[in-house]
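name: query_chain
kind: protein
chains: 1
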Amino acid sequence: MLLKIDSETVDFVCKHKITFNQLAICLFVLRKDVTSIIKIKHNVGYIGDCLIPLTGETATHIQEMDDLVNRKFLIRKLYDKNEPYAFDTFDLNPGFKKEFRTPEEIGEEFFNSYPKTIIVNGVELSARTCDFQEMIAAYFHAIKGGIRLHENIVNLLKEKGGYATVGIMKYIGGRVWETDEVNTKVKSRAI
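structure:
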């Protein structure tokens, strides 16, 4: 699998002056993804349930962890001298944590911003009827995880004032926000 590194990810890394390894460490700590840590530990070779690998680059990884702690991106909840880099001894700084958004958070914000009803042939119907997890996956895939695009979509929905022409899954599948954005620009030029 290829990991797409988009401009938002690069901007984030540059803004905070962190490495991609440090970004990965922060994501593991944020998501408390013990299953992935254990999988990596068994396949790559990590010390205990730590975030530091057993490779020739260990010193570099320790420096990266220490840098995150010293710069207050990571907060050490407790210190275990036997495993000073144990995964569960860290948390993200709350201020830094706000900049990370999970698909669930993005999906929920989109869902809550989407109008509750649509009118079809004079009948009011629910616009949000869907399998919530499928909606999150479809939305996150459609926006390719782009936070800026997500924020633009939420703003477009607010500008529409609770009016929708299609159900939420058709909105996502048809990428209706692209049409909404064009229509909003045309209206603003006409005024």
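note: The CA atoms of residues 79 and 89 lie 7 Å apart.
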